[in-house]
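[step 3/7] inverse_fold.run input=structure_tokens len=140
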């Protein structure tokens, strides 16, 4: 399970044991063994969030705080936790808003829109590029 996670995601998860615990991850308690489940361009936002959450967890002595799952759902960042407080919820909400304005392809803060049934958030420029590529593929 954790073996198939990218090295970058592994290093992020292992950097924050106070948030995720330690591998091997028990699937009945957490889904972090599957990685972060987001696009690469969102990783800097997540690292910033995890830095802030680590401070809150330490300062507020949130010994039961755990991040259970991180993923993208319909183009929106979803982070499932347990044992948090209002401050952890606010930080997660702030990261969710940041990623909702971040193109999942180029990473620009272009206020992207959800495109199609997949719910992928892309800016107009990347949408045009991917649309052109889709049209080229269907013409051949």
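[step 3/7] decode complete -> sequence:
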């Amino acid at each position: 399970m954790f073996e198939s996670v990218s090295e970058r995601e592994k290093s992020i998860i292992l950097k924050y044991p106070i948030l995720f615990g330690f591998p091997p991850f028990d699937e009945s308690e957490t889904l972090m063994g599957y990685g972060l489940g987001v696009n690469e361009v969102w990783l800097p936002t997540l690292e910033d969030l995890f830095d802030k959450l680590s401070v809150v967890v330490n300062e507020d002595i949130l010994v039961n705080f755990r991040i259970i799952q991180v993923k993208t759902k319909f183009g929106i960042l979803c982070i499932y936790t347990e044992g948090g407080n209002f401050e952890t919820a606010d930080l997660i909400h702030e990261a969710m808003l940041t990623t909702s304005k971040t193109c999942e392809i180029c990473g620009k803060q272009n206020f992207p829109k959800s495109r199609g049934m997949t719910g992928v958030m892309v800016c107009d420029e990347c949408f045009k590029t991917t649309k052109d590529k889709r049209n080229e593929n269907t013409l051949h």
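[step 4/7] annotate
Residues 135-140 have pLDDT under 50 and may be disordered.
The two ends are 38 Å apart (CA to CA).
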